[in-house]
Design goal:
The protein is mainly alpha-helical and 62 residues long. It contains two helices and no strands.
Amino acid sequence: MPDIKTKLREYRRILQIARKPGKDEFVTSAKVTSIGLLVIGIIGFVIFLIFVLGCSTLGILC
């Protein structure tokens, strides 16, 4: 198992390489993330409706 100094050196190296995204990159990331969340939410809502309407129509306890 690596010692603490080695791990801290690795973390420091990563932080030095990392950079703050520009405005365009940030806006693009935010749009893609929002679209993904919206799609997942719609899929979840459709599944919910299928269960609610399917169970109430068929009279089955779900």
